[in-house]
Design goal:
Number of strands: 15
Largest sheet: 6 strands, mixed
Order of helices and strands: EEEHEHHEHHHHEEEEEHEEHEHHEE
Strand order of the largest sheet: 1-2-3-4-5-6
CATH topology of the largest domain: Metallo-beta-lactamase, Chain A
Number of domains: 2
Helix content: 25-40%
CATH superfamily of the largest domain: Ribonuclease Z/Hydroxyacylglutathione hydrolase-like
Length: 321
């Protein structure tokens, strides 16, 4: 999809069905003499082939890409590097925290699932080997990726068009967004998920509620006329972007309100809170949505508002009164 003469947006795969290539992120291409891709998506299930074909229909040759700017290190955003970096020779940029994960598939698996710690069994149920196989099937395999240059936020990069790197933690500690001043466009990554979410996207073991909320406030204050998310459709028009972030901020505050209200009537396990707040959630989203609730619970625990106790082998959350 052509956003402007320089910016092109390519829709990824939806997250609702467990098929190969599921959840491959949206990819944005900046058309210049030093062509840039923002994330690269997945390769398997025809995801990268579809991306290349759609780009070619717009007159873009992805093999001419000279730089990859990563929003973060999750598998659905980086797997295409095995083509764009390894075969095409593009230089990869990412935050230092994300670098360690991009460069190690084992570190990536740990950060995505195992770092949930004592809640692993409650959230995922099956042994880790099951999820290793499932992620291989859904997302494919990659190896030998490297980050050539790290970004901490505030850097202005010249690719023939100026791009400003913005540190936007919340979804992950090293999450980055990228602002193109000449276009007043923000490539937002997983600040939010406009397909399956309603606020900040806090769905993994390293997500942070206060960071996510602060990031939404920061982005809302920017001069943005086009918001390009990693999941969901573009949002155009300054008023529409501002209204979107007003809604995201309101709903993110609501995460805390909902969990607190749920615990006001009774003590509950994470599973019970999830069943109360998100009934009917598809299986493909269950783990992510449970981790989002866990992110809120851990924030409330840090604030001294809830406590965690083990009762009859179960991890039970209690509201401090």
């Amino acid at each position: 999809m052509k956003i402007s003469d320089r910016v092109y947006f390519y829709k990824g795969r939806e997250e609702l069905k467990l098929v190969r290539g599921v959840g491959s992120c949206n990819v944005i291409v900046l058309k210049t003499d030093r062509q840039v891709m923002f994330d690269t998506g997945l390769v398997v299930g025809g995801a990268f082939s579809d991306l290349s074909r759609n780009a070619a229909a717009d007159g873009l040759d992805l093999s001419r890409t000279r730089a990859i700017l990563h929003t973060h290190s999750h598998w659905d955003h980086i797997s295409g590097d095995c083509i764009v970096q390894s075969k095409y020779g593009a230089k990869v940029y990412a935050h230092p925290w994300e670098k360690q994960i991009i460069e190690s598939r084992e570190a990536a698996f740990k950060a995505l699932l195992l770092d949930i710690g004592e809640f692993y069994k409650e959230v995922f149920g099956s042994p880790a080997i099951v999820y290793r196989v499932l992620l291989w099937y859904l997302g494919g395999s990659y190896s030998g990726l490297r980050v050539d240059e790290t970004l901490k936020g505030g850097e202005e990069l010249d690719f023939g068009v100026r791009v400003v790197a913005c540190h936007t933690p919340g979804h992950s500690p090293g999450h980055m967004a990228y602002y193109i001043p000449d276009e007043k466009a923000l490539i937002g990554g997983d600040l939010t998920d406009l397909e399956t979410g309603s606020g900040a996207d806090l769905n993994n073991p390293h997500s942070s509620y206060p960071d996510g909320l602060a990031t939404l406030d920061k982005v809302r204050a920017m001069d943005i006329e086009v918001f390009l998310p990693a999941h969901g459709d573009p949002v155009r028009g300054k008023d529409n972007v501002r209204a979107l972030f007003d809604r995201l901020i309101k709903n993110t505050h609501g995460y805390v309100t909902d969990v607190t209200r749920c615990l006001s009537g009774r003590d509950a396990t994470l599973t019970e809170i999830f069943s109360t707040l998100m009934p009917g959630t598809p299986f493909s989203l269950k783990g992510m949505k449970m981790m989002q609730i866990l992110t809120i619970l851990k924030y409330l625990q840090e604030q001294g508002k809830v406590a965690l106790q083990k009762e009859e082998g179960k991890l039970v959350w209690k509201l401090n009164r």
